[in-house]
Every structure is written in structure tokens, then in C-alpha cells.
Amino acid sequence: MRPVALITTKPGFEPELKKEIESLKIKKKVLWTPFRGLLKVLSYDLSEFLREIEDNKEELKFLFRIIPLERGCKTDLTDIKKAVSSLINEKKGKIENKSFVVRCNRRGSHSFKSEDVEREIGKYILDKFNDLNLKVNLKKWDFKVNIEILQDESYVSVFIDDFRDISVDKNIQNLKNLKKYRERPLNRSERKMQELIEKFPELFSDLNCVVDIGASPGGWTKLLSNLAKKVYAIDTGELKVRKDNIIHIKKRAELINFKEDINEDIDLITNDTNLYPVESILLTLKFVNYLKSGGYIIHTVKAEDYSKKKSSLNEILEILDRRSDIHICKIINLKANTKNELTLILKKV
After folding, report:
1. What range defines the domain where residue 214 resides?
2. How many structural domains does the chain have?
């Protein structure tokens, strides 16, 4: 399967849209992205996916926009130009003597603006395909070169005639003033905990005391507080969630004095801190002595970059191998994890 479309919804309603698209009968995968309101769809056939969307549009209540994707490449002007060139060569017969516009939707942090990409690619098309007698028209264009940039990934499409991006205006209007159907995620990592709760409900049964290490801004704490009698949220940063059963300990985890700050048996330890992998696992292990026998640990391994993901995991496994009281239940790649992350599910024996 390959990326065939980006789909959008009102930020905070990504889980609802994901479920709707997953209910379609064709083979596909719906992936989270780091960007609010935006999901990516993988499938075998773009045309089949678009037909399925059209056939079921009335049942899709959270879908705002569908952006078909034809070519994928790295976020590099040379690679983007190659993708554009390939598509224009493919569609020469339809675009000769036509007017066009370049539109770039940039998401992420870059040294350039969307307008820079639009100008560069527009000039490239005019120069390289001068034999096609093309003209730029920003308002009344015949075809659109569409570029979607998602940090390091870019996707290019050439929209002409009936092949173009689709807006579901009815849904946009219906959700425009809807403030709360389901609480919006406090941050992207909250989706990881939601995914864990859905996949492994046994980890969250009969919870009395949970310790959430590196809790700020509170995405994991928020969900855990719905499942446990008490959550100790450890972080020097502020929490964006407040409930009677959340105890915010504004200290660095390594400075916690367990008897003074918590002083009760722990049922579950969670850690999603942005620390070097070894430093992070050692923080988790600091609390294991106070974890009940049979209690679980959910720990995110965050490598510095993708190339170090395997070596970071191996370092952590070596540390855990020296602990006879910890059993490794699962090493998983959650859909909501970044490409540099893995999630460990551990159990105290």
C-alpha cells in the first residue's frame, strides 16, 4: 500500500474521522500524522479509494477535505521538481496550452515558506516545459500543481478536470460551531495512550495509584485519571488538566522522595518523557521498587533519530536484562508513535 490521500477534519475530531474511514470496505490503512486535523490514508488504488469516498460521502460526518496524492518524495526542491516533472510528462496531452497555478501547503518547521516553493516550482515548470505553451494564472487556472509538505515528506499531485481535491462543505458547516463532541487531545502523545487503552484494556483494570513520569502538559494524565482512583503527575512543567484525583508533583522525577511525596503502592508506572533513552529508563526503574507485584510499566523509548532506534532499544534491553524483577511483555510500534519511538510494556514479577 502507498499514500493515496490526506484527509482533514476539525482539530480534536481525528479519532472520529479515523473510525469512519476505517469502516470503508476497501483495503486501506489510516495513519495519524503529527499535525492536528490531518490523517494520511494508505491504499492500493487511489481511484478505488476516491470512488469509495464518493459512494459513502453521506455517512462520513467528520470528513472535511480529501487531498489525493499522486507522487511522494522527500522535502527537497530537487526531489519535488522531479515529482512535478514526472506528472506533467504523464499528463502532457491534457495540459498543453493551458493555464496553471502552483499551491503549496507546508506543515512543519522549514527554512522556506510555502510561497517560496510555489514561485520556484512555477518558474521551473515554465522553463522546463516551454514547448507546452503554459501560462500562470493565479485566479482562473485550468490545472493546479498541488504540493503537500509534511515536515520531511512531500506529496505532489496535478489536479485537472474532475480529478482534484474535494471539500465536504456540509460537514465543515455542521462542525464549525461545535465546541465539544469529544475533548480535544492536549498534545499529540495523548493519542498513544488512547491507542494503548483501546488495544490493551487489561493494563488499566482495577487501578488505584498511577505514577505518570514527565506528565506535562497532561495528555496521558488526563486519560489515566479517568481509569484510576489517583494519578501522581510528576513534572516541573504545568498541567493543562485539573481533577480532584490528579496530584501534580512539581519536581524532577530524579528528585522525588517516595516516602514524602507518594508513600503508597503503585499499580501502574508510565513514562513518555523527552529524555535520552538510557536516562529515561533509569528514571522509570527508580519507581519500580514501589510497584506492586503484577503491576505494569508503560515506557516510551525515544531515540535521537531513526538510525539510532535499534541501538537505543538494545541499550535499554541490556539494562532490563539485569533486572530479575521485570518481565518484558511487549515491544510495540504504536500507530501514534513517531518513527523514532517504540513503546515497551513491562510487568513486575
Report:
1. 190-348
2. 3
CB of 328 within 8 A of CB of 344?
A: yes
Phi, psi of 3 (to 5 degrees): -65, 125
CA distance 124 to 100: 13
CA distance 134 to 142: 10
**At which residue does the C-alpha cell 499529540 appear?**
188
* Residue 287 resides in a domain: yes
Query: Is residue 134 domain-shared with residue 218, that is, in the same domain?
Result: no
DSSP 233: E
CATH code of the domain covering residue 283:
3.40.50.150
Q: Residues 186, 345, 307, 35: what is their CA dihedral angle, to the nearest 10 degrees?
A: -20
CA gap 28, 44 in Å, rounded:
7
What are the pLDDT digits (tens) for 284-305?
A: 999 999 999 999 999 999 998 8
Say yes or no: 220 and 307 in one domain: yes
User: For 88-122, what is each residue's pLDDT tens digit?
Assistant: 999 999 999 999 999 999 998 888 899 999 999 99
Beta strands in the chain (DSSP E): 2-8, 28-32, 38-43, 65-68, 71-74, 99-107, 135-136, 143-150, 153-160, 166-167, 207-213, 228-234, 246-249, 266-271, 291-302, 326-332, 341-348
Considering the entire predicted model, what is its pTM?
0.55
The torsion defined by the Cα of 54, 59, 61 and 64, in degrees rounded to 10, comes to: 0
User: Rounded distance, CA 162 to CA 126, Å?
Assistant: 24
- Contact (CB, 8 A) for 75 and 41: no
